[in-house]
Amino acid sequence: MTTHRLAAAVLGIGLLASPGFARAEEITIGFTAALSGDFAAFGLNMRKGLDLAVAALNKKGGNTYTIDAVDDRGEAREGVLIAQRFCSDKKVDVVMGYSFSSIALAAVPVFNECKLPVLASAVTSPALTNVSPYFRRNVLTDAVQGTMMGDYAAKTLGLKSIYVLNQQDDYGIGVAKAFSAAAEKDGAKIIGTESYLLGSKDFRTLLTKVRAAKPDAIFIGGFYTEAAKIAEQARALGIKAQLLSTDGALNVELMKLGRSAVEGMIVYGMFDPAVATPATESFLSAYKAAYKEDPSAWAALGYDAGMALGAAVDLAAKDGPVTRESLNAAFGKLKDVPGVTGPTTFDPSGDRAGALYFLEVKDGKFGLAPKQP
Amino acid sequence: MEIFVQQLINGLTLGSIYGLIAIGYTMVFGIIGMVNFAHGDVFMVSAFIALICFLLVTTVLGITSIFLALAIVLVVAMFFTSLLNWAIERVAYRPLRGSFRLAPMISAIGMSIFLANFVQVTQGPRNKPVPPMITDVIVLMDSGSYQVTLAWKQVIIMVVTAALLGGFWYLVQKTSLGRAQRACEQDRKMAALLGINVDHTISLTFVIGAALAAVAGTLYLMYYGVANFADGFVPGVKAFTAAVLGGIGSLPGAVLGGLLIGLIETFWSAYFSIEYKDVAAFSILAITLIFMPQGLLGRPEVEKV
Which CDD domains match (chain A) (predicted)? Predict the structure, then answer.
């Protein structure tokens, strides 16, 4: 009852404000991601990027932004509860974050119900394409990224025979499938595909098989933990093939775990501090000043999501008070919002177009790979 | 042929580690008839003790000889893990002795969860790496297109396992401690009447089991180069399977079972599908329990009246 009355009051105030009359909006961002546990790094980095964007937007004046953050601990069950909480909290205008596709997928029906727009930054499952008119993300899907990597491996690097290893889950299978299809279309031969479980440590059996097949390259569709182990054991077995991996391996932990074995491994991501363009420079220096570390791709995407939100709020405010509905419509109308991962425009499917950087491990650091498409 | 030999080496190494852990299960079961579900986690803790000790030895003490460092790490890990397992037995199992049969087993499950969570909280949830050690390999066969290599690490693992099995077989068969242990295994009450300190013997059994788990933990760390709080579970359950397959209560059975599980897992992944390797390993557990409950080298259980 109280919420209904409150909503009516808010609506009343909204009606009082005439369109075109400049008034400051108070935007509350519901932020949810895995902020603790094994894969907390993605969520914490997104949060840092988003915080930076919010600080910049608030400094600009006009509309004010606050973040209401909730840890989903990487559990889909929590995701639904958090979604319901954001829905019933009328102050929340938009939901951001999300570390896991499965959690976002579980939460989407709840957001449909209360027409709350979502702008996610780290969930890459193709299953989220076209899932809802209220769901958008500024990260490329696994299918798109895998395809780009496949093209890169076959065309740019000219690799002829590739052995594909992937993590046995939606992420690994999705990205490996897209990679293999693209690489084969471009003339490379996929000479074998095997999958492994997240958390595996022993790849010697698998790699003994790989060594017998003598591939030019091994593609690892998975996270840095296993990518580092595979690299180490492959080198120990005397496999000299080029190692390729994904954005799941784009993490400084890769070098801590794999050391010299991961030298020369090529991964991809939508952003890297090594790629300093004029557009990214102010972000880089602000981020370094605030957190004393280099921003990751997830921090960059969180920052860009914040900037896209700022643009959408400004757009929505032109035609009257910002509501969940008008904000959602504004997201759809955004065109080429500048950002550190390139311009953001959302397709009707909720996805965005963008470019990938291919990065090579050199002297224990990620740097731009010498060959770019 | 070359690939077969290479996979055989992989399988024997893995099996040796399972065998070392399996001895701990088998000895405890033999003496108090309890499956110590916390044993896998004791193994995991020992890997962390070894990791911390290795980093201290190489950085603070500055020891560069890898074999000396490993020897120190092994002794330290064995000592602390034994102490831990001794304490666990005192705190979690001994007060429940004489209670109903399931009580210590449930206590062991609780202890397993406690250890895993304790390590997760204090050491963090991520993989903890150590620098790669002993990276040299021996080329066994070279057919021109395919080299069969045997890493020194693998040699060390197999040799240490064989030596320890010999040592412990001697301990159980020939020494007074072993006699006391076997007596407790056969009839605890009678052994006590004959002047054997049963509590002391059981404590020592836990200490020995933990020492072997610590050897396995150190070798595991050396072989894979990382430790993780969740590492106790799967190797622990596989070692338990190995103990059941070999005949729970039998020392040579535990090692034989460990080697077989290691080989089955490796050859299954090599020639069928790697996704199903754990399914293959655990199917063995079910099949053994159905058709051969006493295991390969176990004695059929004598009904104690």
Answer: PBP1_ABC_HAAT-like
Q: Tens of pLDDT along A17-64?
A: 444 445 678 899 999 998 877 677 788 889 999 999 999 999 988 889
Could you please state the CATH topology (level 3) that the domain comprising B2-291 is classified under: ABC transporter involved in vitamin B12 uptake, BtuC (1.10.3470)
Query: Which candidate in B136, B224, B263, B282 is best for mutational testing of the A interface (most A CBs within 10 A)?
Result: B224
Q: pLDDT band for position A134 (50/70/90)?
A: very high
User: What mean pLDDT do residues B34-38 have?
Assistant: 89
For chain B, give the percent of residues with pLDDT over 70.
98
Rounded-to-integer distance, Cα A212 and Cα A214, Å: 6
Chain A residue numbers with beta carbons less than 8 Å from the beta carbon of B123 are none
Looking up tokens 């988003």, which residue turns up?
A50
CA distance A150 to A160: 12
Beta carbons within 10 angstroms of residue A175's beta carbon: 33
Could A229 and B274 be called an inter-chain contact, meaning their C-beta atoms sit closer than 8 Å? no
pLDDT at A294: 84
Q: Where are the domains of chain B?
A: 2-291
What residues of B are in contact with residue A201 (Cβ under 8 Å)?
A: 224, 226, 231
Three-state DSSP at A146 gives helix
pLDDT per residue as tens digits for the range A69-99? 999 888 888 889 999 999 999 999 999 999 8
> Which fold, A5-140+276-333?
Rossmann fold (3.40.50)
* Cross-chain CB nearest to B14 (options A202, A209, A253): A202
Query: CB-CB: which of A195, A201, A232 is closest to B132?
Result: A232
pLDDT at A18: 44
Residue-wise pLDDT tens digits, A171-227 = 888 899 999 999 999 999 999 999 998 888 889 889 998 998 999 999 999 988 899
Cα–Cα distance between B261 and B269 in angstroms, integer? Answer: 12
Same fold: A5-140+276-333 with A143-269+357-368 = yes
Give domain A143-269+357-368's CATH superfamily.
Answer: Response regulator (3.40.50.2300)
Which amino acid is it at A172?
G
* B contacts of A214 (beta carbons < 8 Å): 145
Range of weakest confidence among A128-132, A292-296, A358-362: A292-296
Cα–chain center distance at B177: 21
Q: Within an 8 Å CB–CB cutoff, is residue B136 touching chain A?
A: no
B294 min Cα distance to partner chain A (Å)? 30
Chain B residue at shortest CA distance from A257: B129
Q: Is B256 exposed, middle or buried (0-12, 13-18, 19+ CB in 10 A)?
A: buried
**From the candidates B1, B6, B143, B263, which should be mutated to test the interface with A, based on the most A CB atoms within 10 A?**
B6
Q: Which residues of A203-215 are buried (b: 16+ CB within 10 A; e: fewer)?
A: bbbbbbbbbeeeb
Taking Cα atoms as reference points, which of B195, B179, B217 lies closest to residue B82? B217
Is the pTM of the predicted complex or chain greater than 0.90? no
Q: What is the pLDDT of residue A19?
A: 45
User: pLDDT for A142-159, tens place per residue?
Assistant: 999 999 999 999 999 999
| Domain boundaries defined on chain A | 5-140+276-333, 143-269+357-368
